[in-house]
Amino acid sequence: MSTRMPHNLAEEAEARCLVKGCSMLQARAIPEAEEVKLNTWEFDDLPLSDMETIQCTLRIFVDTGISSSFKIPFDVLCRWALSVKKNYRPVLYHNWRHAFNVVQTMFCIITVGGLKAYFTDLDILALLTACISHDLDHRGTNNAFQTKSNTALAQLYGTSVLEKHHFNHCVMILQSPGNNIFGALNAEEYRHAIKMVEHNIISTDLALYFKKRDSFKQLVAYPDTDWSSGPAKELLSGMLMTACDLGAITKPWDIQQQVADLVAQEFFEQGDLEQQKFGAPTAPMFDRSKYPELPKMQVGFIDFICTPLYKALVDKFPGLAPLMDGSQSNRTNWHLLSEGKGDHLISPQLAVKIKDFPPGV
Q: In terms of pTM, does the model score above 0.70?
């Protein structure tokens, strides 16, 4: 006997849950940013409940002035945030918690990092919306897997497959009744905001980051670059999206090692699928038997992907130094572990996985 509800009843149940969630949010006082260290680079979401992460999301829109600037009704903001959360799948890493951490990092960049001076309120609305929506409906597999498997998404989009899907999912939520946080924008503002949200979400495709990184470095080296307009601001927005997307690498060590394990476990699940479909994982980072090499892989990830980006950003925007400092501190620890010298650095749970991980488990 099937236990699934008919589609319309399932939608009605979800709608009732959403209404209840909105009522709960509106009845509660949103915590001040300082109470939960929301405005710090060291912020840790792990102790928070899901409802508290929603409250913190509302706080970000309030404290940046975005909700008041664009007259977003509080019930609409609540409903939209809850809808976004609901549209993340329960995969191990690319889930609601990751999206929430990405928008929290952007909050720090804009406020304590000093980047607000380069963006209009409309730009910030687009950045925050993109951050929290950038991995909507992620399936726990990457673009290469989608393409090699010739999935429906790959056939539909061709390039930047998942990012285009995430953007379309974002627009779908905005266009759902009671969820349009862009409702007070005029036609021109709406067009610009949607265009920037699309640009920002697509920019989280690392393949595009690699293509644009040298151009960004050139603009950083040029002393008269105007970062507040035109192509330079657009490129800066994209680089900041990547900086936030990779932000877990900058967090305190206790957080970083937990997140690294979640990322690895999600990669291994993709590797298991690749083993079934293609006969072998497509890269070492998807191979469960390579788990003991996690420290070495993390060092390579930081050196090849993270450090060039954070260095370029800090060279021009010194207020973002904590991103570089945090990533380099974690690199030091991962490097020690890769040389067998950092046993005291890791949690017992991670130590067991790195040292005694049996191949094929």
A: yes
